[in-house]
From TrEMBL:
Top-level taxon: Bacteria
Taxonomic lineage of the native organism: Bacteria, Bacillati, Actinomycetota, Actinomycetes, Micromonosporales
Name by which UniProt lists this protein: dUTPase
Length: 95
């Protein structure tokens, strides 16, 4: 078994096409297919075992209650007991 010196410089593989081959490639008809966007591919891609939902999801939106506040940093609605300090609309998690 021969040993291989992986640190030795490697000879570059040079591919020289003949002039006839290059002309034939240029004259060959090209595919008329357009580039496909990755987002388009994601729409038709299905994961095995995944459920396909045909209907729209709907969620009932409940208005903010009188004892709730919206955090000025994370924009989540919290109960007033989660306020970091009185009079400041910042939750304990963001403070």
């Amino acid at each position: 078994m021969a040993t291989t010196d992986y640190d030795a410089p490697r000879a570059a593989a040079v591919e020289e096409d003949s002039l006839e081959e290059l002309k034939a490639r240029r004259a060959a008809p090209r595919s008329g297919a357009a580039d496909v966007d990755d987002a388009d591919l994601a729409e038709v891609f299905e994961l095995p075992g995944a459920e396909q939902l045909d209907g729209e999801l709907s969620v009932a939106v409940i208005p903010m209650q009188a004892d709730e506040f919206r955090c000025s940093r994370c924009y989540l609605v919290h109960h007033r007991s989660q306020r970091a300090a009185a009079g400041i609309d910042v939750c304990r998690d963001c403070a």
